[in-house]
Amino acid sequence: MQDLGYLFGISVSRVSQIIQAGLPEIAEKLLFLLRWPDREEIIRTLPNVFKSSYRFKKCRVIIDCTEIFIERGRNLNLRALTWSNYKHHNTFKILVGITPVGAISFVSKAFGGRISDKVITNKSGFLNLLEHGDLVLADRGFLISEELAAHGASLAIPAFTKGKKQVSCLEVESTRRLARVRIHVERAMERIKNFTILSTILPIALVAQADNIIMICAVLSNLQPKLIA
User: Fold this and answer.
1) What is the pLDDT of residues 172-202, one digit of tens each?
2) Which tens digits make up the pLDDT trace of 40-96?
3) Separation CA 19–CA 97 (nearest Å)
4) CATH number at 35-221
5) Where in the chain is the domain with CATH 3.30.420.10?
């Protein structure tokens, strides 16, 4: 902000006012670049890596969560809600969904870092977008098969190895194939967080604008070349 102040010959406080007022407007104008495509469009553009597996042909979306570091505030309740045991830092957590071709099709609101993958999936509104017959690809932390079943959808996650002396050949092959296609959601999230404003620690002054900032970074990521051929 100070750099922008020097560039335009205005005070830092004025720069802050302009940004606070402008971010919601920019996010609203760019929102059309973040869309949930219909099933016919998904089938028509399905990459070969999905077509090679009968199970993955039904894939509607690949989901995962990512966390954004935020500055530690003075409010004790905010500190508790945003503390992430995984990152050992105060964070915002968001749920991201991508289409099989790698376009970002869903971004949740920002939740406190302590929220679980299952809870954020239930609270984000993501489930309401699913249709009967959809397949959702996710990581092991998404124990949401019952929630998906209530919407007529199914879940594909890597096989659990805890408590097993040996994993079957079928489970190994299934996990390997799933990893090949699921890795692209991590690449999509990396694109979002490559923007400097999200790759460092989000200052307290911008915490209230987190949803707009994340949305803008997500839709700009969709202007880049597709992830999966």
Assistant:
1) 566 677 777 777 788 889 999 999 999 999 9
2) 999 998 888 888 777 788 999 999 999 999 999 888 898 999 999 999 999 999 999
3) 27
4) 3.30.420.10
5) 35-221
Type and span of the H or E element at 68: strand 59-69
Tokens of 211: 């949803």
Residue with tokens 């945003």, as numbered in its chain = 82
Residue 81 vs residues 76, 89, 191: alpha-carbon distances, Å: 9, 11, 26
E-assigned strands of 110-227?
111-112, 135-137, 154-156
d(CA 181, CA 87): 25
129 to 120, 122, 143, 151: CA distances (angstroms): 15, 12, 18, 9
The pTM of the full predicted model, rounded to 2 decimals, is 0.87
Name the residue among 41, 103, 60, 47 with its Cα closest to residue 229.
Answer: 47
Gap between the Cα atoms of 36 and 222, Å rounded? 13
Nearest in space to 116 (alpha carbons), one of 98, 135, 89, 143: 143
Gap between the Cα atoms of 111 and 95, Å rounded: 9
Query: What whole-number distance in Å separates Cα of residue 61 and Cα of residue 106?
Result: 9
